[in-house]
Amino acid sequence: MKKSKVILLSIISLFFYNCDDDSPTPLNIVSSTIEDLYAPQEGGQGQPISGEFTKFDFESGLMTESSTEWDIAFRGTSIIVNGGSSLATANEPDRTGDAGVYIYDGLMSEMSIVETSLIEQDSSDGYAIVTGSGNGWYTYAGPPTFLISPTPGKILVFRTRDGKFAKVEILSYYLGAPENPDAFVDQGRHYTFNYVYQPNEGVTEFN
Hints:
Blueprint: H1 2-20, E1 30-38, E2 42-44, E3 47-50, E4 54-57, E5 62-64, E6 72-75, E7 78-81, E8 100-105, E9 138-140, E10 148-150, E11 154-159, E12 165-174, E13 188-198
Antiparallel strand pairs: 1-13, 2-3, 4-5, 4-6, 6-7, 8-11, 9-10, 11-12, 12-13
């Protein structure tokens, strides 16, 4: 009888130990493609730039109009993050999160671990993703084609507003992502990009 009680108590103890040790199941990494995200702007060509930014949330995988629950935002060729401070251009959304970014040189598949020490945020001195041809994510061909093309091998690595991570490969700046875009025919300011989102907080690996 005493032996039976000891066995029963051991089983009960083991049950409660396993319950206490139960850790959350890791969330699956998300890989997706966003097509034709429209990023209009007003001005340019020597005129002041304005217009609302198109905001995007990695957690939902959707555009959003939320003033706080966004990670990155697009206007023309500019991409900003929900972290740091404003450059004080017209219509910039307030930065309420801790998002940041750096550019990885290489293939999307090769970018496997985030180098957190490289992450920068927007500031009054400039956006973390530097604008201008050859400086950030794109190259501008100028005349006669006037094409804006994603620079090969430039992967944008983001820390989201709430401490998670994502990587982005921009595929096209033109509506429908034509294989051979024509700036005089194809409508620009439409982003198509691949992204991979790591939804587990603090995990810096994409494998």
